[in-house]
Design brief:
Helix content: under 10%
Bound molecules: zinc ion
Largest sheet: 5 strands, antiparallel
Distance between the termini: 48 Å
Strand content: 35-45%
Number of strands: 8
Mean pLDDT: 83
Number of helices: 0
Radius of gyration: 16 Å
Low-confidence stretches: 1-12
CATH architecture of one domain: Beta Barrel
Length: 130
């Protein structure tokens, strides 16, 4: 019998699984459950649909359409307002990303991983709508 205590929680990819921007690697990855086919964004130790632990992480092309846009005016560490967009990727997952002023809902976009070099950030790499 397998319990949660038996599971290996490899959130920082020391096991050789591909790294992404959250690990400091300029890549955007999509996770794919080998058991049920569900896809999702950002690393999880198990499939959110079936709990399966056989997960493949593949690079995303970074192309999609903007589903929503907002501006964050009150930032934790101060600074200028930042644009935030939700983008539905061609791979079938939704990604939260930074965006520039003028980004609109429905717009076809590409996402790149960029370094913003903002002081106090846990990672200087972020997804950004081009
Ligand atoms: Zn699954």
């Amino acid at each position: 019998m397998t319990t949660g205590a038996d599971r290996t929680w490899n959130l920082a990819s020391p096991d050789g699984t591909p790294s992404d921007w959250t690990d400091g690697t300029p890549a955007l990855l999509v996770s794919h459950c080998e058991a049920c086919g569900r896809k999702w964004y950002l690393r999880r130790p198990a499939c959110p649909s079936c709990g399966g632990a056989r997960i493949t992480r593949i690079p995303a092309a970074g192309r999609g359409h903007v589903a929503a846009v907002t501006v964050a005016h009150r930032r934790v560490r101060g600074g200028d307002p930042i644009g935030i967009a939700l983008v539905d990727l061609e791979e079938g997952v939704r990604v939260m990303t930074r965006c520039r002023r003028g980004t609109t809902v429905g717009q076809a976009v590409s996402i790149a991983i960029v370094s913003l070099n903002e002081p106090g950030e846990t990672s200087s790499l972020v997804p950004m709508v081009l």
